[in-house]
Amino acid sequence: MTMQVTPLDASFGATVEGVELATINEDAFAALYEVWLDYALLIFPGQHLDNAKQTGFAKRFGKLEIDLVELSNVKEDGSLRLGDDDDMVKILKGNMSWHHDSTYMPVQAKGAVFRAEVVPSEDGETGWADMSAAYDALSPEMRRRIESLSAHHSLIHSQLKAGFMAKVKKDSEYFGYGLDQKGAPLRSLVKTHPETGRKTLTIGRHAHAIPGLSGTESERLLDELLDFACQPPRIYHHSWTPGDVVLWDNRCLMHQSRPWDMSQPRIMFHSRLAGDPVSEGGAEAA
Fold this sequence. Notes:
The protein is α+β, with helices and mostly antiparallel strands and about 290 residues long. The protein contains 8 helices and 15 strands. The protein has helices spanning about 25-40, 50-60, 85-95, 130-135, 140-145, 155-160, 215-230, 275-280; strands at about 5, 15, 40-45, 65-70, 110-120, 125-130, 150-155, 185-190, 190, 200, 205-210, 235-240, 245-250, 255, 265-275. The strands form 4 sheets. A 7-stranded mixed sheet has the order 1-2-3-13-5-15-4, sandwiched between helices. A 3-stranded antiparallel sheet has the order 12-6-14. The chain starts with a strand and ends in a 6-residue tail after the last helix. The model has no long low-confidence stretch (mean pLDDT about 95).
């Protein structure tokens, strides 16, 4: 089949059909990679990958930061995670705010492959926001204001701010990844995408404490940028069907999950593409 690319009704993103991700050959993958750079977000309906095939496809992009993790409100025994005291629920609810993946780690992630296994009957969408288009839409005055500014990034900060950190147990299986950090990497508010050359904003829920500004000034500026960026046509929310696979570029997109009735199961699988330490590395934690 010929790869069919249908742009979304947004400043970015496309639905891609006519390709089987599990068996894609080198030539087709090379073409798909260029489409990914063009659109940043690709949606592949009806792929129905298993864990091994998802990980295998993700590895086509290079090293993985996370091979595969289940993001789910379902426990191993099949029962549902209910209540805010559950550590995974704290992570799931924290992720409902706009963010880039792994900006709180020494190296920001390149992107992600995400698949839907079980979805609720309604709600539970995932949204993305175009940070390159957001930068392009800024006024010249705002561009000049933020060009030389940076912000610290911390998962501890963002979980505390959302009210989901104080009770996380240090022996929890979720504690070690970003929740044990002793500092917060410093990242420029404006970066240049290493492959497209476009300028893009790096903000989101993990960003805080802009050096040179007071805490109040920093929060006000970051909130202003976030509110401006995450507006149509720079956002898209995807309603999931089991078997859907999504590939996104974490270097120029933020994302968020949307609330759903957690008495219904939602099981998603996430593979995280490792970033290049040269282009995605943050300044030393401080």
